[in-house]
């Protein structure tokens, strides 16, 4: 039976003003280690990446709550889209310096790729966990229908002022069911609890909708040809959000990329296989 992840306690720094945006930053791991800047996905927070970050021995893993999520307030001077987040994340990367490894999960993978393609400060390496290989809005089948239904639900709730509906635990449970692949009952229960606790910690309905539109229409693919740093793609062979067929095409679009697929795992590698992901990342960066 797989053990339930038990992330180490994060050190919460005072609120930073990053490119004009108040940001709560969490740091895990070795305070003297080489830095890793880790960006979480849509409707996530630093909590989601804590199991992975706590296993990156020897590294100082900096995990901010993206503005509009977790404890970070929403942007007041820009849209919550890829460009808005990339500008903000580029400032964080510049503060940490060129020896930093840049990591992103899901929507965070799109932001990380945009940063890496355009940043004045180039990271040491790029790690994309469950990267979005093609826009969800372009996908067919169950993925496309699910994306359309999610967008309709969110926009409808926003028009009706049903903020509580978008924070309801039933939506968190739906996310758990659709993305969790493990058969370990203890791990499934832990993931469900995590989603229920943090899925609704978005700042405003407006900021959530902006990010949702950006996540549904964006992907890593347009940025890949412009990225020259070594890149590691970690994906789940049963990922329904970012299916493996698209991952192979995405890897081929980079100048220097390695794709590793984990069998029997879906879109929650950071929850279901954090130790495996940490080993892959340490080995890749050390090569």
What's the topology here?
Blueprint: E1 11-12, E2 16-18, E3 21-23, E4 25-29, E5 34-39, H1 46-53, E6 59-64, H2 82-96, E7 101-105, H3 107-118, E8 125-129, H4 141-159, H5 163-166, H6 169-179, H7 185-198, H8 205-217, E9 231-236, H9 244-253, E10 257-262, H10 269-272, H11 274-286
Parallel strand pairs: 5-6, 5-7, 7-8, 8-9, 9-10
Antiparallel strand pairs: 1-4, 2-3, 4-6
Q: What would you note in describing this structure?
A:
This is Pimeloyl-ACP methyl ester carboxylesterase. Keywords: Hydrolase. One of its GO terms (molecular function) is hydrolase activity. It comes from Pseudonocardia alni. The chain has 287 residues and is α/β, with parallel strands linked by helices. The chain has a single domain, classed as 3-Layer(aba) Sandwich (Rossmann fold). The protein is 43% helix and 16% strand. It contains eleven helices and ten strands. Helix 2 packs across helix 3. The longest helix has 19 residues. It is globular. The mean pLDDT is 90.
For the secondary structure, the number of strands is 10
Q: What's the architecture in CATH terms?
A: 3-Layer(aba) Sandwich
Q: How many helices? A: 11
CATH superfamily: Alpha/Beta hydrolase fold, catalytic domain
Termini separation comes to: 32 Å
The CATH topology label is Rossmann fold
| Name of the CATH first level | Alpha Beta
Output the strand order for the largest sheet: 1-4-6-5-7-8-9-10
* SSE sequence, one letter per element: EEEEEHEHEHEHHHHHEHEHH
- Strand composition percent: 15-25%
Keywords: Hydrolase
GO molecular function: hydrolase activity
Protein name: Pimeloyl-ACP methyl ester carboxylesterase
Domain AB hydrolase-1: 36-279
């Amino acid at each position: 039976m797989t053990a339930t992840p038990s992330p180490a306690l994060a050190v919460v720094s005072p609120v930073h003003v990053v490119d004009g945006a108040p940001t709560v930053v969490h740091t895990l791991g070795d305070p003297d280690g080489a830095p890793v800047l880790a960006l979480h996905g849509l409707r996530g927070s630093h909590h989601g990446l804590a199991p992975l970050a706590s296993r990156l021995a020897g590294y100082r893993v900096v995990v901010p709550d993206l503005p509009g999520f977790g404890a970070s307030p929403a942007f007041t001077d820009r849209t919550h889209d890829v460009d808005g987040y990339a500008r903000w994340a580029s400032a964080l990367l510049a503060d940490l310096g060129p020896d930093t490894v840049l990591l992103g999960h899901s929507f965070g993978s799109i932001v990380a790729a945009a940063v890496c393609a355009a940043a004045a400060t180039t990271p040491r390496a790029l790690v994309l966990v469950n990267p979005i290989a093609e826009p969800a809005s372009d996908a067919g089948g169950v993925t496309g229908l699910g994306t359309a239904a999610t967008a309709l639900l969110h926009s409808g709730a926003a028009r009706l002022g049903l903020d509580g509906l978008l924070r309801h635990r039933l939506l968190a449970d739906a996310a758990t069911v659709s993305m969790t692949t493990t058969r370990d009952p203890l791990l499934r229960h832990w993931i469900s609890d995590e989603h229920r606790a943090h899925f609704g910690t978005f700042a405003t309905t407006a900021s959530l909708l902006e990010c949702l539109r950006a996540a549904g229409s964006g992907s890593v693919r347009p940025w890949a040809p412009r990225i020259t740093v070594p890149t590691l793609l970690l994906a789940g062979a049963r990922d329904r959000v970012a299916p493996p067929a698209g991952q192979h095409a995405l890897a081929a679009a980079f100048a220097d990329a390695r794709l590793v697929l984990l069998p029997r795992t879906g879109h929650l590698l950071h929850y279901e296989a954090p130790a495996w992901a940490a080993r892959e990342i340490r080995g890749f960066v050390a090569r």
